[in-house]
Amino acid sequence: MDTIYEEHAKVFKAFCDEKRLRILELLRGGEKCACVLLEQLDVGQSGLSYHMKILVESGVVESRQEGKWTHYKISEKGSAYAGSLLKELTTPNSVIEENNCCKR
């Protein structure tokens, strides 16, 4: 069961950093080469690599190699999964669980 929570945490970790949110905003316009992302962000090569690793591991972003550069785009499947996961985790259960706390 811990593994499922670890996978869920990867998705939400992708959204909890300002730089990663900016990267996602840039990728909304379509696939971008890492060189373009470097030009548009105030981050070095190692910083970009760190953020892209988190985004790719979350499944929200896909990558492909072309020569020495990596190209990134938003994953339709990963994006849909992230949206449904948020909805699932924030929608109350239809079955009301008994709360045994503080019974008098």
Automatic annotation (TrEMBL):
KW 4Fe-4S (keyword) present: no
Domain HTH arsR-type: 1-97
InterPro entries named in the record: ArsR-like_HTH (IPR011991), HTH_ArsR_DNA-bd_dom (IPR001845), HTH_MetalResp_TranReg (IPR051081), WH-like_DNA-bd_sf (IPR036388), WH_DNA-bd_sf (IPR036390)
Keywords: DNA-binding, Transcription, Transcription regulation
Gene3D superfamilies, A to Z: Winged helix-like DNA-binding domain superfamily/Winged helix DNA-binding domain
PROSITE patterns xref list: HTH_ARSR_2 (PS50987)
GO molecular function terms attached to this record: DNA binding; DNA-binding transcription factor activity
Cross-referenced PANTHER family: ARSENICAL RESISTANCE OPERON REPRESSOR, TRANSCRIPTIONAL REGULATOR, ARSR FAMILY
Protein name (record): Arsenical resistance operon repressor
Recorded name of the encoding gene: arsR_2
